[in-house]
């Protein structure tokens, strides 16, 4: 009597175990393409890049490099391009701050004020995303035209005496930071919008009810609750902006006094053919961003909100 | 911020001619109301009757279209919500998800720059027996615990007026009973003025000193729970607050003490003081628990109304009482609640019975039930008189 009961009880258990193992195998199978992709196109190039960064010029063949654990490459590029590295992070930071200041009110308007009007909301959202339909190279080139010495902006500023007769906008840090800000505004705006769209206004009301004035309630309730959007938006802006080489290129909005690390890497790889220096700069850039982002996410205390 | 604003005890609330229109509909029409300081006031009504809007107007979260709001005699109509000595326990609790329970409770104190906000917040949490969970986030608490945090967060500020927006709605019955008692004891302990909005008539009656029944943006009746229950003035109040048997009646005689009316051929008396109208066609009512079921026709006694015979159509047992449905020709279906003094029902379905009640238990309404033939006749009459 006991035996069949026992068997009956254990049979479904083993069945479930088998199903779990099977579903585990299926999951692994489904993950395989992704894992293979990452190994092939991320990990392998990264390793190759690290190895390249440790090469030194071949003593026998001109233009060839040999792997020699040449750590001096890193010290050399820091000494040689420290200014550009520092400038990259400064410009990226400025662009992130400006994009945030511009996007937050916009995203708030879209996500909170337009909650009851879905048609107007989607229409304006399309406008935010609309620039993506045109290549950003074209858009940046267009800005070069607009900000050029013969353009309306410069002549107006000169007429208002805000710009001296010999001054330019293109080729200056102002133009580069402006271009970076402009190009990354959608990346800032969309995550902010998705967070603010879900903002529980009843909680904001509770803040007002509990003696919080408009500014205090914003600082103590709305802003902390929009941190997930702020963090993802700033990351999506800061990381690519720090490595950007289009805006700061002298073919677009930059000049010799506004060169960023991206331009230096590009020129080392493609013009000077100094692969070890370019690779060392790339690794340095990547590692620095990783550290900055890690500290930032930790400090902003949004791990449980993300 | 003016700290003198925050009274040590409750303040009285006065609404004068308040009206609130939203695009497309009017939520509150012409509301005049006085809530005396230190009382527990319940605003009772079905959903959509304008009671939550009224509360939001008092809190300052909505602006009235017209009318004034006075708090302790001071006009606060144009005062921003954060400057009103009023706190709300929201229906959704609206706890700050990014703060600990303790920081939630200390929020109002911090905004006003009160000394030792955390100490005071801790003692408020002790009041609702949640001091052990002070360091948790709201999401880690159960619904009942969140509700108590919301209460502590409001009470800790010692507002002159505490608004409760159906805060017990999400709780299960047992927890709700417990919280009702706790709320009541907190109110008498701290002496605040409470305005409690609810659609639960039992909750309103057990907790409140004064009940206002609201319907379609208007207050239909205000009074103590006993008063409103025992002597409803309108058909809405008679049916929303408990159940009532309502009969159309035609007044035949109007004496000094009582009004005699004809209900389906029976002479029914109602005290003159309990009848809102004393002539023409009126609606008479009596509560189901006031009725007595008789299996034989009683001999007429002064002071007792008798209706019948009628046929019992349904008997349902509910523990302490049994509910009988009796079909009385000409008077409709009558509900009777009879206490279970013996085992089992006294009569079976199909039996012929008579119903009796004491004259002083009846009441005469000012209007007729909505949608009834009587109401239509009544409206035609009133409309005819106006033109």
Distance between termini of chain B?
56 Å
The backbone outline of chain A, from C-alpha atoms, is: globular
Say what oligomer this is: heterodimer
Level-1 CATH class name of chain A: Mainly Alpha
Give the number of helices of chain B: 9
- Provide the CATH architecture of chain A: Orthogonal Bundle
**Percent of residues in β-strands of chain B:** 25-35%
CATH evolutionary superfamily of the largest domain in chain B: P-loop containing nucleotide triphosphate hydrolases
Major sheet: arrangement of strands of chain A: 1-2
Question: Could you give the order of strands across the largest sheet of chain B?
Answer: 6-7-8-3-9-10
Q: How many strand elements of chain B?
A: 20
Tell me the major beta sheet of chain A.
2 strands, antiparallel
Mean pLDDT of chain A: 88
Q: Care to describe what's here?
A:
The complex is a heterodimer of chains A (306) and B (387). Chain A has one domain: MetI-like (MetI-like fold, Orthogonal Bundle). Chain A has helices at residues 2-53, 72-113, 118-129, 136-146, 152-159, 173-197, 201-209, 214-225, 227-243, 261-271, 275-300, and strands at residues 55-57, 65-67. In chain A, strands 1-2 form a two-stranded antiparallel sheet. Chain A is mostly helical. In chain A, strand 1 and strand 2 form a beta hairpin. Helix content of chain A is 74%, strand content 2%. In chain A, 30% of the residues are buried. The model of chain A is unreliable at 1-15 (pLDDT under 50). With 387 residues, chain B is α+β, with helices and mostly antiparallel strands. Chain B has 2 domains: 3-230, P-loop containing nucleotide triphosphate hydrolases (Rossmann fold); 236-386, Beta Barrel (OB fold (Dihydrolipoamide Acetyltransferase, E2P)), CATH 2.40.50.140. Chain B has 9 helices and 20 strands. In chain B, a hairpin with a 2-residue loop joins strand 9 (210-215) and strand 10 (218-223). The longest helix of chain B has 18 residues, at 173-190. Chain B is elongated. The termini of chain B are far apart. Chains A and B meet through helix 7 and helix 8 of A and strand 6 and helix 2 of B.
């Amino acid at each position: 009597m006991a035996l069949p009961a026992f068997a009956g009880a254990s049979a479904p258990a083993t069945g479930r175990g088998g199903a779990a193992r099977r579903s585990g195998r299926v999951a692994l199978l489904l993950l395989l393409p992704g894992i293979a992709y990452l190994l092939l196109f991320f990990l392998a190039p990264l390793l190759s890049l690290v190895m390249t960064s440790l090469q030194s010029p071949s003593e026998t063949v001109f233009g060839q490099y040999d792997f020699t654990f040449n750590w001096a490459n890193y010290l050399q590029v820091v000494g040689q391009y420290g200014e550009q590295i520092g400038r990259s992070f400064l410009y990226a930071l400025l662009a992130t701050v400006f994009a945030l200041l511009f996007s937050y009110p916009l995203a708030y308007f879209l996500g909170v004020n337009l909650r009851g009007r879905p048609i107007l909301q989607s229409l304006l959202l399309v406008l935010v995303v609309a620039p993506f339909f045109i290549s950003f190279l074209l858009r940046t080139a267009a800005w070069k035209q607009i900000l050029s010495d013969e353009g309306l902006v410069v002549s107006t500023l000169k007429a208002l005496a805000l710009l001296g007769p010999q001054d330019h906008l293109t080729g200056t840090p102002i133009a580069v930071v402006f271009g970076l800000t402009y190009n990354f505004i959608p990346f800032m705006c969309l995550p902010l919008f998705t967070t603010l769209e879900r903002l529980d206004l009843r909680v904001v009301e509770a803040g007002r009810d509990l003696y919080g004035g408009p500014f205090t309630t914003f600082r103590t309730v709305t802003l902390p609750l929009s941190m997930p959007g702020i963090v993802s938006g700033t990351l999506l802006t800061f990381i690519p902006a720090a490595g950007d080489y289009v805006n700061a290129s002298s073919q677009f909005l930059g000049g010799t006094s506004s060169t960023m690390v991206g331009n230096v890497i590009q020129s080392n790889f493609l013009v000077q053919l100094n692969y070890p220096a370019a690779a060392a700069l790339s690794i340095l850039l990547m590692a620095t961003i990783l550290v900055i982002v890690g500290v930032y996410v930790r400090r902003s205390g949004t791990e449980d909100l993300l | 911020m003016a700290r003198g604003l925050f009274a040590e005890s409750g303040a009285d609330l006065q609404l004068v001619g308040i009206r609130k229109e939203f695009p497309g509909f009017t939520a509150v029409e012409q509301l005049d109301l006085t809530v005396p300081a230190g009382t527990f006031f319940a605003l009772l009504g079905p959903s959509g009757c304008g009671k939550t809007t009224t509360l939001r107007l008092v809190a300052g979260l909505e602006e009235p279209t017209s009318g004034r709001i006075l708090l302790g005699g001071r006009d606060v109509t144009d005062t921003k919500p954060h400057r009103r000595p009023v706190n709300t326990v929201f229906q959704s609790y609206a706890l700050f998800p990014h703060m600990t329970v303790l920081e939630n409770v200390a929020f109002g104190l911090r905004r006003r720059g009160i000394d030792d906000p955390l100490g005071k917040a801790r003692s408020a949490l002790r009041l609702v027996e949640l001091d052990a969970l002070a360091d948790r986030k709201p999401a880690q608490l159960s619904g009942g615990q969140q509700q108590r945090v919301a209460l502590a967060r409001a009470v800790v500020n010692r507002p002159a007026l505490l608004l409760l927006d159906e805060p017990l709605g999400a709780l299960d019955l047992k927890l709700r009973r417990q919280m009702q008692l706790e709320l009541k004891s907190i109110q008498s302990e701290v002496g605040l003025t409470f305005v409690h909005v609810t659609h639960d008539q039992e909750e309103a009656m057990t907790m409140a000193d004064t009940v206002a029944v609201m319907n379609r943006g208007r207050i239909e009746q205000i009074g103590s729970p006993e008063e409103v229950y025992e002597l409803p003035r309108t058909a809405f109040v008679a049916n929303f607050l408990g159940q009532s048997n309502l009969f159309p009646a035609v007044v035949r005689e109007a004496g000094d003490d009582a009004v005699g009316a004809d209900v389906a051929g029976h002479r029914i008396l109602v005290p003159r003081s309990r009848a809102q109208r004393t002539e023409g066609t009126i609606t008479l009512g009596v509560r189901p628990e006031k009725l007595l079921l008789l299996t034989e026709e009683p001999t007429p006694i002064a002071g007792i109304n008798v209706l019948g015979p009628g046929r019992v159509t349904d008997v349902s047992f509910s523990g302490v009482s049994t509910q009988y449905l009796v079909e009385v020709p000409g008077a409709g279906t009558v509900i009777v609640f009879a206490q279970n003094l013996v085992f089992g029902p006294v009569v079976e379905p199909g039996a012929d019975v008579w119903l009796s009640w004491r004259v002083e238990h009846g009441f005469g309404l000012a209007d007729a039930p909505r949608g009834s033939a009587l109401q239509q006749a009544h409206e035609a009459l009133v409309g005819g008189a106006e033109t």
